[in-house]
Amino acid sequence: MQNFHRNQIFIFVLLVGAFFFSSLAAAHAAPLNFATAENISLSSPSTTLTIATGSVADALSVNATSVLVMMSSSTGGTFTLVSPSYDLSVATSSGGGTATVSCTNGIESAALSQTTGSTVYTLTPTTTNCSSASAPIITNVTSGLFVDVPDGATTTVSTGTASLEAEIASLEAELQALIAEQNGASATNTRVIFTVFHFTRDLERGDRGVDVKALQELLIKEHIGPAAKALGEYGPTDYFGDYTFDALKEFQKHAGIVPDSGYFGPLTRAYVATL
Fold it and tell me: Do 59 and 32 contact (CB within 8 A), yes or no?
């Protein structure tokens, strides 16, 4: 497998993260097995990370600032990322997994494993240099943000489902107020209100729904290549067919999402949430 390098800034949005990830079917589990060590280049900070020999994962995506790793209960192993100098922070989409972060002789490592469910881990190098005093162990992962801190301590900024639901309800109320305001405006002073669709399920060929149409509109808007152009000429519908499948594979390949399978799963939804 060739080294991964992407020049795009990735921001992981915890606000809606808990709603974006669910378990993949067994047919989509653990397609990645790193028989040899693989290097990953990030641009901010400028550093090279290493995927340790023997690591396994369901899916992997590399951005300019972070690495996304999806693990599930069927992965059947451990994914280990090694940082030569910087501390690694770990953010998760859900519970059911274990992340162990340690520093030995100035080299930081994060080992991920999954016992139940499915989790997307976001591993981000910080601006702090790894030191032997910083060796926290993170276990029984819950939804939230985990940051490497000195003296073996672990700090958690958790985001519970209830608080997320309340926040989203507040945002939806604001959106409805904007729509009401637009509907009350005069015909000579109309405004266009742009909304962001929140995908709450995985999508694959044969599915129907408003979320399928939203995905098609996104792929047409991004206009990555010929497959997206073909989908645009056909137009968005509510059916996930061959045009959508080909355009999604094209989109995933351009974004560095592995595998680029045409399956709209947790890793792709996490990436789309940042656009």
Answer: yes
pTM (2 decimals)? 0.49
Tokens at 74, concatenated: 């069927």
Task: State yes or no: cis peptide before 150, omega within 30 of 0.
Answer: no
Q: Using alpha carbons only, give the angle 234, 232, 248 rounded to the nearest 5 degrees.
A: 105
Model pLDDT for residues 144-165, shown as the tens digit of each residue? 444 433 434 333 334 445 556 6
Report the candidate in 83, 159, 160 with the shortest Cα–Cα distance to residue 124.
83
Local confidence band at 51 (pLDDT 50, 70, 90 cut-offs): very high
DSSP labels for 22-38?
Answer: -PPPGGGS--EE-SS-E
CB 121 within 8 A of CB 90: yes
**Cβ atoms 65, 10 nearer than 8 A:** yes
State the pLDDT at residue 249.
94
pLDDT, tens only, 177-189:
777 766 665 444 4
Write 48-55 long-range contacts (CB < 8 A, 24+).
48/84, 49/81, 49/82, 49/83, 49/84, 49/125, 50/81, 50/82, 50/84, 51/79, 51/80, 51/81, 51/82, 52/80, 52/81, 52/82, 52/109, 54/78, 54/80, 55/79, 55/80, 55/81
Assess contact for 248 and 264: CB atoms under 8 A.
yes
Closest CA to 243 of 252, 255, 233: 233
End-to-end CA distance of the chain: 27
